[in-house]
């Protein structure tokens, strides 16, 4: 938890900055509805009127509500959430008279560790509506604090000065600095990694995170972002190439090079890396290769018992990410080695 400066002298070294996120349940993407947005904005502002709270930034999208706030020592994000979430849920049910939950989960809270992290978060949130297809440039999105902070819209009760203080001493200079900072769009990989870590949709889809999962840890997000749009198959393809490179057989899993035992060992190493870095469970890797989970788990245990394999598993993830490997041609490895999902090839029948 990063330490942030507060406006008053008391407890300034213990104030913390938080990013709070509410995500709509399926079919509830109506937060920007004209009958809702103004009430949501006013409720956010009211929830931060307590002494020691500062609302730095907010963003409302059809299916997401993002809040960046600074709380003094002794305050907690759940107190802000209680003052906001239940009331908004009631308002949504008044607009959408259907049964069911309003939010996918109560809320998520992410600590903002430093001033540099805060600046990165502000830029990500500025470009979030563009990434979701809501507008073509950050300043066109009216359901957020950015236009107010830049002086393009009336304040409507929102105090932009706490955020501007992070970009300059004078209002004019801070606004110019902020405009310059958000002018450069984050890279697609950075946007995808951020979305995965926070469990929200990437691109223009309304499906959040990865299929069957919410937020992922940073290591898995790095791998998925490096693999691009190919999803789990592309990540496993990257791990395949890395394992083959470490074993000195660059085309091991994409051809018939090497013995069947060596290919089984390589698949087990891929599974160990996938589990170690939080990419997926061993069962998902077994399905990817069309293997029995029990067999793959036995081979994984054997890998963990070999010193040379442990050396591969313990290599820093940064070495893989900076190795220059890409996800091109992934998906062919399992098929060429007889590992078509759901069906065992000739080689696999002879060598389970």
Description:
A hairpin with a 2-residue loop joins strand 2 and strand 3. The chain has 17 helices and 4 strands. The protein has helices at about 35-45, 75-80, 85-95, 115-130, 145-150, 160-165, 170-185, 190-200, 220-225, 230-245, 260-275, 280-290, 295-305, 305-315, 315-320, 330-335, 345-350; strands at about 15-25, 55-60, 65-70, 110. The two termini are about 50 Å apart. It has about 350 residues and is α+β, with helices and mostly antiparallel strands. It is about 45% helix and about 10% strand. It has 2 domains: about 10-215, Alpha-Beta Plaits; about 220-350.
Shape: elongated
Task: Count up the domains.
Answer: 2
CATH superfamily of the largest domain: Transposase IS200-like
**What's the CATH architecture name of the largest domain?**
2-Layer Sandwich
- What is the overall pLDDT average? 83
**Nearest-angstrom radius of gyration?**
24 Å
CATH fold name of the largest domain, please? Alpha-Beta Plaits
Number of helices: 17
Order of helices and strands: EHEEHHEHHHHHHHHHHHHHH
The neighbouring-strand order within the major sheet is 2-3-1-4
According to DSSP, the number of beta strands is 4
Helix share of residues? Answer: 40-55%
Distance between the termini: 48 Å
Strand content: 5-15%
Low-confidence parts: 1-12, 207-212, 329-352
Which structural category do the helix and sheet elements fall into? alpha+beta
Largest sheet: 4 strands, antiparallel
The CATH class name of the largest domain reads Alpha Beta
């Amino acid at each position: 938890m990063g330490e942030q400066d507060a406006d008053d002298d008391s407890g300034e070294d213990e104030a913390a900055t938080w990013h709070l996120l509410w995500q709509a349940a399926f079919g509830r993407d109506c937060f920007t509805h004209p009958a809702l947005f103004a009430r949501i904005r006013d409720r956010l502002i009211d929830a931060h009127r307590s002494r020691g709270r500062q609302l730095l930034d907010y963003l409302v999208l059809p299916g997401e509500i993002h809040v960046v706030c600074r709380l003094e020592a002794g305050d907690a994000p759940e107190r802000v959430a209680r003052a906001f979430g239940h009331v908004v849920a009631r308002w949504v049910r008044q607009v959408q008279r259907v049964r069911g939950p309003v939010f996918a989960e109560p809320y998520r809270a992410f600590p903002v560790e430093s001033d540099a992290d805060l600046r990165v978060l502000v830029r990500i949130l500025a470009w979030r509506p563009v990434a979701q297809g809501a507008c073509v440039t950050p300043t066109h999105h009216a359901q957020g604090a950015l236009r107010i902070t830049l002086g393009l819209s009336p304040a409507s009760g929102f105090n932009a000065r706490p955020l501007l203080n992070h970009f300059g001493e004078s209002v004019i200079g801070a606004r110019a600095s902020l405009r310059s900072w958000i002018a450069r769009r984050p890279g697609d990989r950075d946007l995808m990694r951020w979305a995965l870590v926070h469990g929200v949709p990437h691109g223009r889809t309304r499906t959040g995170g990865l299929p069957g999962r919410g937020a992922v840890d940073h290591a898995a997000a790095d791998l998925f972002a490096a693999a691009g749009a190919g999803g789990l198959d592309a990540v496993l393809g990257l791990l395949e190439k890395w394992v083959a490179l470490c074993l000195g057989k660059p085309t091991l899993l994409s051809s018939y090079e090497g013995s069947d035992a060596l290919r089984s060992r390589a698949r087990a190493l891929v599974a160990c890396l996938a589990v170690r870095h939080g990419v997926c469970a061993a069962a998902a890797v077994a399905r990817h290769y069309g293997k029995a989970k029990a067999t793959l788990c036995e081979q994984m245990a054997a890998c963990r018992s070999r010193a040379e394999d442990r050396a591969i598993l313990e290599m820093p993830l940064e070495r893989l990410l900076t190795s220059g490997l890409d996800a091109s041609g992934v998906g062919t490895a399992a098929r060429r080695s007889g590992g078509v999902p759901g069906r065992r090839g000739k080689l696999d029948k002879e060598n389970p």
